[in-house]
Amino acid sequence: MRTVRTVAEVRELVRAERAAGRSIGLVPTMGALHDGHLSLLRQAGAACDVVVMSLFVNPTQFNEGADLDAYPRDEAADAQAARSAGCAILFAPDVKEVYPDGFCTTVEVAGPLTSTLEGAHRGPSHFHGVTTVVTKLLNMVQPDVAFFGQKDAQQALVIRRLVRDLDMPVRIVVGDTVREPDGLARSSRNVRLSGEDRARATGLSRALRAAEQAVVAGERDADAVAAAARATLTDFAVDPEYLAVVDPETLAPRTEIDGDVLVAVAARVGAVRLIDNVLITTTPNGRG
Amino acid sequence: MRTVRTVAEVRELVRAERAAGRSIGLVPTMGALHDGHLSLLRQAGAACDVVVMSLFVNPTQFNEGADLDAYPRDEAADAQAARSAGCAILFAPDVKEVYPDGFCTTVEVAGPLTSTLEGAHRGPSHFHGVTTVVTKLLNMVQPDVAFFGQKDAQQALVIRRLVRDLDMPVRIVVGDTVREPDGLARSSRNVRLSGEDRARATGLSRALRAAEQAVVAGERDADAVAAAARATLTDFAVDPEYLAVVDPETLAPRTEIDGDVLVAVAARVGAVRLIDNVLITTTPNGRG
């Protein structure tokens, strides 16, 4: 595995691979790799000839300086994990390489995709930071395919919209959420959960399972499905920032469970903000 | 020359050319071709193996509906002119192909580059419209080089910044302003100038020449240089929206003529809004 820190270097490596007829997969990360990232790297390796992983803790998408400061960083461990999962090129630029002096351009996806759920709670600048840096990373590396995780379901929708709206020549693949044995969605922030909070954190995935079970049992009223999830959160002493039953493409609120719905939750557990979601599929206008 | 109307078609043609080892030049236009465009097409043909011209009257960069409605359109004449100037692929998408339902992404360059001069007088949405459509056109066609005209000096600076900030893999070339024999900068809007206004319109280029002559004669005070230009505008009964002596890279106002300066002017002549500019070069800290 080669580690490079400049746009010029990563482009030169990618150009050589492409000239040799090889396809390029990009897995953008902020480091602190967990099994979710490694799953994406393996998926990229199965779909593409060469896997590039970017490692860049993007300051512009953090709405709280404390969250940015607390974000775990261990490049040596990340490099070792990435290599073991099949990464061939590790692109780890510093902040000045990504945002040189005079930088003043922003890419914004407007509307419900960025103003609801995470956008409402973290502020609109969060997704502007994401879409700007993703546009840059895609232009820097120019992959054939880029891989994102379903744990950040809203982010994945925003990026699909971004790529479609700006006609970016790349295919977006969204990999399944990877979970701990007890159901907690893998996240770089999980390492900051202390003993008791770690147990409470399982409340999010349990709540989503409760919602799913309500639908499987025949419930079609979105409020009732949400209430089942909220009851579970209460059992775990977790007070959600939001728990929403929404359309999985537009994020518009749904009142009835008919066809696919996305149930998304965000909550602070101790000092750590966690998110999770589940896509629930039913037969449209029929029995689930 | 092939004429295509969809992103899929232009990409297929470009892919085939590139696979054959040929370089691609893009000249983005809004049609109504004049000698300035033809000069860019010839410049593209000299620098690249295959010249693509886009023809799209972008509604999002017009701040006045009347200006958009009055914008001259004659695709048959444009196609003939483009072909004669060496264009191989004419990409003429309709509005729905560029902005399909659900489109909601904007690319914005912030700061003085977009807030001063044209940005101050046409409103910030003008340049947001330009940067968004240029990002899309560059992604649609994926040229090696894209060509813009120096007549729109501020637009060229904004696009250079856009491409640098978003790490777009394209080289930007800015072609010299082409003028009528009497000095009027070629513009698609010139055809809307009536007899008397056509004569008054030469005041803009004459004023810029007066500014240049003042500098050549030794004037180093920017206000005095601007005053010389304004006096000429008055002679032609032209009241400028702005006449500015600015840094040619940052567009910051200059008080002293030292090194290169850009003198830019905008004015309504009858019903037509015209712009023009001149880059004046002096020896820094010495005699011009």
Structure commentary:
2 copies of one chain form a homodimer. The first copy, chain A, has 11 helices and 10 strands. Chain A is of the alpha/beta class and 288 residues long. The first copy, chain A, has 2 domains: 2-175, HUPs (Rossmann fold), CATH 3.40.50.620; 188-280, Pantoate-beta-alanine ligase, C-terminal domain (Pantoate--beta-alanine Ligase, Chain: A,domain 2), CATH 3.30.1300. A 6-stranded parallel sheet of chain A has the order 1-4-3-2-6-7, sandwiched between helices. The first copy, chain A, has a 3-stranded antiparallel sheet with strand order 8-9-10, covered by helices on one side. The mean pLDDT of chain A is 96. β5 of chain A pairs antiparallel with β5 of chain B.
Using brief descriptors, characterize the structure shown:
Pantoate--beta-alanine Ligase, Chain: A,domain 2, alpha/beta, three-stranded antiparallel β-sheet, six-stranded parallel β-sheet, Rossmann fold, globular, homodimer, 288 residues
Q: Helix-strand pattern of chain A, N to C?
A: EHEHEHHEHEHHHEHEHHEEE
**So what's the oligomer here?**
homodimer
Question: How confident overall, as mean pLDDT of chain A?
Answer: 96
- Mind telling me the CATH class of the largest domain in chain A? Alpha Beta
The geometry of chain A reads as globular
How much of the sequence lies in strands of chain A comes to 15-25%
Number of domains of chain A: 2
Strand count of chain A: 10
Q: Work out the largest interface and the residue count of each chain.
A: A-B, 26 and 26 residues
Q: Number of DSSP helices of chain A?
A: 11
How much is the radius of gyration of chain A in Å?
Answer: 19 Å
Helix content of chain A: 40-55%
How would you classify the helix and strand content of chain A by structural class? Answer: alpha/beta
Head-to-tail CA distance between termini of chain A: 47 Å
CATH homolog superfamily of the largest domain in chain A:
HUPs
CATH topology of the largest domain in chain A: Rossmann fold
Spatial order of strands in the largest sheet of chain A: 1-4-3-2-6-7
Poorly predicted tracts of residues of chain A: none
Second-tier CATH architecture of the largest domain in chain A: 3-Layer(aba) Sandwich
Major beta sheet summary of chain A: 6 strands, parallel
